[in-house]
Amino acid sequence: MNLLQTYEANGVSRPVYEYGESVLDALRDRFDAIDRMAELNQGKVIRAMQDARVDAACFAATTGYGYDDVGRDRLEEVYASVFGTEAALVRPQITCGTHALTVALSANLLPGDELLSPVGLPYDTLQEVIGIRPSPCSLAEYGVRYRQVDLLPDGGFDYPAIRAAIHEKTKLITIQRSKGYATRPSFSVAQIGELISFCKGVKPDVLVMVDNCYGEFVEELEPSQVCADLCVGSLIKNPGGGLAPIGGYIVGTKACVERCAYRLSAPGLGQEVGANLGILPSFYQGLFLAPTVVAGALKGAIFAACLYERLGFRVVPGGAEERHDIIQAVELGSEAGMRAFCKGIQAAAPVDSYVEPIPWAMPGYDDEVIMAAGAFVQGSSIELSADGPIRPPYAVYFQGGLTWYHAKLGILRSLQSMVDAGLTVLPN
Ligand SMILES: *Cc1c(COP(=O)(O)O)cnc(C)c1O
Question: Does 121 contact ligand 1 (Cβ within 6 A)?
Answer without folding.
Answer: no
